[in-house]
Amino acid sequence: MVELTPELRRIQTLIEQLLTRMGGVLPLTYLVVDGHFGNNNALQMARQCNLQLISKLRADSALYLPYTGPYAGKGPHRIYGDKINPRALPARFLRQITVEDGIETRSYQLEARHRTFAQALNLVVIVKTNLTTQAQAHVLLFSSDLRLSFDLVSDYYQLRFQLEFNFRDAKQYWGLEDFMITSPTAVTNAANLALFMVNLVERLLQDRRQRHPAISVLDLKAHCRGTKYVEETIKLLPERPEPVILERIFSKVVGLGRIHALPADPVLA
Prior knowledge:
Blueprint lengths: L5 H17 L7 E3 L7 H9 L3 E6 L5 E4 L13 E4 L10 E7 L2 E12 L6 E10 L5 E8 L6 H25 L9 H25 L8 H20 L6 H12 L15
Parallel strand pairs: 1-2
Antiparallel strand pairs: 2-8, 3-4, 3-6, 5-6, 6-7, 7-8
Helix pairs in contact: 3-4, 5-6
């Protein structure tokens, strides 16, 4: 039985609370974490939550092929075979080759053993080579799910960066790190509102980018603020302006504060 660190116990508690709140409405299978948690303790924590782990190993990790030779006839069965060289893997493990902007990317997948892990790992090795200089670099991704395909291991791990972008936007645009409240309920409400706004605005931008591809979050905020200014100003006028004049006022005010200039058609649908 693995003894979890205080950090992993806190994470496990949060995961269990999330799973309880979801109540099986949206089944979860994988827990994706960065290389800080690429260790056996984190894997065991995920398995205790009935989740499969996806993470990253150190580039210099000592990995071995599973031993497939004959039994020696005495003592425990051998587990570790030949040591793995990530940049000289046999062709039978190659899954994909792509070339983009002079960089060749080779993706390999194999079952591997690590001496600090209690189980075999689904290892995905990504080797990048600069075709001009022949300089190389590699990344070691892994999952506890031995059946997960190499492309999904890579895709799921990359989703972790989207979570970081979401928190960045919540801090930068929606006050996630600016609120001064301290009570648990108020903090929960403020954090949920900030993250909700990230999702809502991303959905709104999808529609608007069909007409204005360069529009940003700041542009949308300027548009909404300008719309409110126009509405409140119109209420103060003794008579409502003619539609043509109103459209000109609207298009002028909503353009104030934008980062990207409005195109020829200034009115956002």
